[in-house]
Design a protein that fits this description.
Elements (H helix, E strand, L loop, with lengths): L5 H6 L3 H9 L4 H4 L9 H18 L4 E9 L3 E10 L3 E2 L8 H5 L7 E8 L2 E9 L6 H8 L10
Antiparallel strand pairs: 1-2, 2-3, 2-4, 4-5
Keywords: Signal
Amino acid sequence: MPRVPARARLALPLVPVLLALAAAPPGHARDAIRTPQVGDPDRKAILNALRPAVEAALGGRVLFVVNVLRTDGRWAFFQGTPQRPGGRAVDWTRTPYAEAWRADAMSDVVMGLVARTPDGWRLVDHVIGPTDVHWVGWRDAYGLPQRLFLPE
């Protein structure tokens, strides 16, 4: 049996997301960029799509301080800082990122790219501790408008 290249194996989980997005009807709702506010069901769903991956990586519950949350209705971009319940800062020296944190080789930022599917919002990709403009790769890879990431 032929071996599936690693790059293809990584892309397989995204197939349902991409098919759902391709089948979505066109319209102005997906073109308008908005920031879901506190209390908006989309805000909660988008953050909850990202939360399990960040909690698994950091080893414990997290809440998010939202710096950027923008959606066109099909895609959502998040940028913010994780914190522990009660507003406590994450102690990065007690995470798998301790070495990078001590070396000042990372930030305390989390970025996430989330897509709406028929089953709700689903995490497509995320990064913890970027020191560059990580979303540029997402913009290019998925053909997303820059305005999803930056206000016009």
